[in-house]
Write a structure and sequence with these properties.
139 residues, mainly beta, Jelly Rolls, 2 domains, 6-stranded antiparallel sheet, 1 helix, 45% strand, globular, disordered N terminus
Amino acid sequence: MEEYPRVIYGHDGAGNPQCPSVDAGGVLDVSATRVSGWQTATIDVTEDDDLSGAVDLGEHYRYLAVIVPALTLARIGVRVCATADGTYVALGSGTSAQTDPTTGGYATVFDIGGWRFVKVSTSAAQAEDRSFLVQGVRG
């Protein structure tokens, strides 16, 4: 086995962890991976059938990892705001800032460029409540 992959994952040539965020078993300490932790962004159709409630990632993150539930066919996008209770605007312009039309059931990542407060949007009304799992990730 080549030694190169071990270096990438924080181990020396003998397999010993070299990063303080990796324990002796090679398991990463989640707090050291620079992620926000998973949170739920829910589209509640009784409130808004194509926009989730606000999620505070806790800090500013470069990327937003999203686990997409089953959906009514739609594109998925992200809305952002400088404050939790301000006016959320679409991230990017047009369909280039959204996924291709989908019925969900997969994971994706959006480049949110350092925003903290986010909402998940769909281009079409959802037939029932949808819960997206989201996590901020630093670049």
